[in-house]
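Appendix C reproduces, verbatim, an entry submitted by the partner laboratory led by Prof. M.T., so that reviewers can inspect both the input and the predicted structure.
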Amino acid sequence: MSHDEMVFDDVKYREPERRCRPDRDRRWACLAYGLPGVIDLPIYLDRETADLIERHALRDTSVELGGILLGKECLDEKTGLPFVMVTKSLEAKHYENTQASFTYTHDSWEEITRDRDRLHPDLDIVGWYHTHPDFGIFLSSHDQFIHRHFFAQPLQVAYVVDPIRQTRGFFQWRDGELEEVEGYYLFADRADRIALTRLVNDLENFPNAEGGGGGLSPRLEAQLIAMLTRPVTHHQTTADRTQTAVLFSLIGSLVGMLVLAAGFLFYQTYQEIANQARTLKEVQQSTGEIISAQRLALDSLLGETSDGPDKFTARYNLVVRERDDARKEVSRSKTIDAALTDRSNQLEANILKLTKEFETAKKTVERYNEEKKGSPDLLSRLAFLEDAVKSKAKTIREKDAILETTKDADKIEALINSYQRTWYTAAAGWGLFLVTALGFFTMLGQPKPAVKLRDESTTDDPPPHRIA
């Protein structure tokens, strides 16, 4: 059947309604399959619907199967962000399929529309699902053609299941492209939390604890049904024999685990009963001893009452006083024991302290002994140092005397220098005086030059005169 021939009649979609998300609603229990991404469209798949899809996918793993997802396209009443709830599914009964393709026909779509209107008229078509036996999780070009032309609403999704590899995943619209979400949520009524946990563990291939309820997993049940309904053939293929061996191995493992769990529970129960029996026996023995002691005391009291009430009263008072004295003695003994215990603890602490001090003193004595062994050398070195100190002191005294003498010599030298400067000054003065006097007397001993008459015709300036 070609792409152009696939027509789905008229499909009506409702506007998203505002409601509380299941993971925020206390009526529901939610568990994640995979790790839903921050930008992924939150998709909530009902537990029973997921179980039905898994059983449908395992019904025939030789070809692709499919159906329609029903539910609600919603907006979170707190944040206003969209999410999808898948609460029901309808199998496509009239379709064309091969090992690698699945195609709706007019009959399949008409029957799905009638079933939806008859069984779930209040639910929307929120997407579709189909299987990829041993092909992995992806959308082929044929799958994308179907989704783009018949599930093009922004919140409509596609669910792909690989029953052989035991993987599954949702695809959503994101920026005009179909992309796989990283994870989604499975939800159920809070009373079905255990069954929801078992289903999620089965889907993610995690072992379930024994006795958790929920019955057989969809995969194991489908394999059992296929084994029981498979026609008997005398020529089995290697794959059939392998599947049969694996199936019986699973059944044997399951039975073995059940037997082992039952044996373990029986052993624990037996141990608890044995412990309780021993406890009851000990209680019975102690009770018997108490009863015997009370009976003996009572017989003694009854026997002593025959001597008369006065003697019995006096003996009773004596016993009471002895009991009180015994109690006081016990109390005093406890007090003494406590005091002795405290004293013993103090003595132990003191002994520990003295031991540490003794160790320290011992180390000190050992150090002193080591120093004592080298004391002759120390004495000789001390005498040598004393002689050196005396010699240094003598040298210092001599240098001090020289220093004092040097100070006086400096004073004398300064005085001599001052005298010499005075004498040199006086000699210079006398020399200058003698030179001046000699010049003066020399000038007086020379004859005077002739004086010429001044010529009237000459200039008025007098002629220069010289002294010979």
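Residues 1-11, 450-459 have pLDDT under 50 and may be disordered. Additional entries are available on request from the coordinating office.
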